[in-house]
Design a protein that fits this description.
The structure is a single chain. The chain has 535 residues and is mostly beta strands. It is built from five helices and 22 strands. The protein is elongated, with a radius of gyration of 35 Å.
């Protein structure tokens, strides 16, 4: 019955246009043939709908995902930037925070009301050092007491304790406090009420700010490690380390692009200035762009600006005329690795003014290395590096040509003995690194140092003068240094560092010593051992 009604309906629909047009109706046989054809199509469609799922044709497999290729318009998924505790710890470590194991859950983790979470981590580090002679400053010059014996050595033990509290308030919002106690063993009478604690970090971090892949730190934060830390580094080997008060931002618009920006008040004029001027602050700001369009290759560009306004800087023409310093440092760096080879190169230029004197300085670094795997857990590597930082050919002409390395990391460049700054120097370095077994790394490095300008000074990493020969008669070869040290990681939370370094004075040290009433020239040795527990 239902099929009959369907047949009549189809015939009526087919005949209606012809009837309306007042044309002769079509041939009935043609209508029947077309009706049978439509009926067969309807039956076929009904059969397809009634077929069980297992009888259907299987779906075609999805094509494999194409591997990532750089696309400037690519935006990573938002969840990649969620502020989870592990991601925060890794970011903090990259910025130069605690050396605590970033993958560990922490010594204490508490789930608190209102969906908040408190995590407690920390570290205890002890190091002993012995150095002889203690300094190459001639007694009675550049801050060394005249009564010091030129051959005196020095030995001491350092202790540093850190406790960090991280509070995850809500999604993307975090508060962090780090308390640090740094001291030299025996530097105070036992039981004396002397405070040696300090707030190393205390900031609020906001991730995914304004709905963008942007993280903002506001407060006191550890100085970020940028590039190879030759200009900006946290100086983790120091017993205190560096932290600044200000704002730090990190923006990652794509997988291969990162911009770091910061503005910090390093020194408050109202507190530290001898004049008491509230505007005499030390401001340090910077932009650092890192771009990795090719796997294992990175290109970086940066600009740093300092406004040091305490009116404590002297001019070359007059030691009694004091003023401010404002300088800019612009540079670029490329680094990468391929087939076991690794390379890096960096160029820097610096300009500005200091107490009326103009600043024009520059520096550059080139490095090439090779690493050969020996097994899954063993490898052997070697590298060669040349570093140059300009000196001042005439320290009395009102043109400052000595490159200032800003705030570099210690125990990383130009020898572990920390005798030489990245100023007025040529440094040729040869190094070998071996990993004989899991968690053990051995290092051997050799350095040769030459002053760039003989009338300029020999500077230490704190930019303090060690020696200066204003006549320029002393020869340029400063000396050579050999370093041998080892690191060992135990139980993922306990690490050891120990080594010995030796400095062999060169012609410059011998020549400049003649002006110091026949001061003898001694080799300097430095022995150190360190243990650190992270929790």
């Amino acid at each position: 019955m239902r099929r009959g009604w369907l047949s009549l309906l189809l015939v009526a629909l087919w005949a209606a246009p012809a009837a309306l047009a007042q044309e002769a109706p079509p041939d009935p046989q043609d209508l029947l043939d077309r009706l049978h054809e439509l009926e067969r199509e309807v039956e076929r469609l009904r059969g397809a709908q009634a077929a069980p799922p297992e009888e259907r044709a299987p779906d075609a497999e999805e094509p494999p995902q194409e591997e990532f290729r750089f696309d400037p318009s690519y935006t990573p998924p938002q969840e990649e930037f969620r502020f989870d505790p592990d991601a925060a710890a890794k970011a903090k470590e990259a910025r130069g925070g605690s050396w605590a194991d970033s993958t560990a859950p922490g010594w204490l983790s508490l789930e608190l009301p209102w969906s908040t979470k408190l995590t407690v981590t920390g570290s205890i580090r002890a190091r002993g050092e012995y150095r002889a002679p203690a300094s190459y400053r001639i007694p009675g010059t550049f801050g060394r007491p005249a009564t010091d014996d030129r051959g005196d050595g020095t030995d001491f033990a350092l202790l540093r304790t850190r406790v960090e509290l991280t509070l995850d308030v809500v999604e993307h919002l975090q508060a962090h406090v780090e308390i640090q106690d740094s001291r030299v063993w025996g530097d105070q009478v036992v039981g004396a009420d002397v405070a040696e604690l300090q707030l190393r970090q205390g900031y609020i971090a906001y991730d995914q700010a304004f709905g963008q892949p942007l993280t903002i730190w506001i407060g006191r934060w550890a100085v970020p490690n940028l590039g190879d830390q030759r200009l900006i580094g946290v100086a983790e080997f120091n017993n205190v380390g560096r932290s600044w008060d200000g704002v730090l931002l990190e923006w990652r618009p794509t997988r291969c692009l990162k911009l770091t920006a910061f503005a910090a008040n390093v020194r408050e004029g109202l507190v530290f200035s001898t004049t008491g001027d509230e505007n005499d602050d030390f401001w340090f700001s910077g932009l650092y762009l890192s771009w990795s369009p090719i796997a294992a290759h990175t290109f970086e560009a940066y600009l740093f600006w300092r406004d040091l306004s305490d009116r404590v800087f002297s001019t070359e023409r007059s030691a009694t005329r004091l003023g401010e310093r404002e300088d800019y440092t612009f540079g670029g760096r490329a680094a990468g690795e391929r087939c076991g080879w690794d390379y890096s190169g960096e160029l820097m230029v610096q300009w500005g003014n200091q107490a009326g004197d103009s600043i024009r300085a520059f520096a550059g670094v080139a490095r090439l290395g090779f690493t050969q795997p020996l097994s899954d857990q063993r490898e052997l590597g070697a590298h060669v590096e040349y570093a140059y930082a300009s000196g001042d050919s005439n320290p009395t002409d009102g043109r400052l040509q000595t490159f200032d390395p800003l705030v570099p990391a210690r125990f990383r460049h130009h020898g572990v003995m920390n005798l030489v700054a990245f100023s007025n120097i040529h440094d040729v370095e040869l190094g070998v690194r071996a990993v004989p077994c899991e968690n053990l790394t051995l290092h051997v490095e050799a350095h040769g140092f030459w002053l760039d300008k003989r009338k300029d000074a020999w500077f230490d990493p704190g930019r303090s003068v060690v020696r200066r020969d204003p006549s320029g008669a002393s020869r340029r070869f400063l000396g050579s240094e050999v370093d041998a040290y080892a690191t060992y990681e135990m139980l993922e939370r306990l690490s050891f560092l120990a080594g010995y370094a030796h400095f062999f004075p060169g012609q410059y040290v011998r020549d400049s010593s003649q002006a110091g009433a026949g001061i003898a020239v001694h080799d300097q040795g430095w022995l150190f051992a360190q243990v650190e527990l992270r929790f």
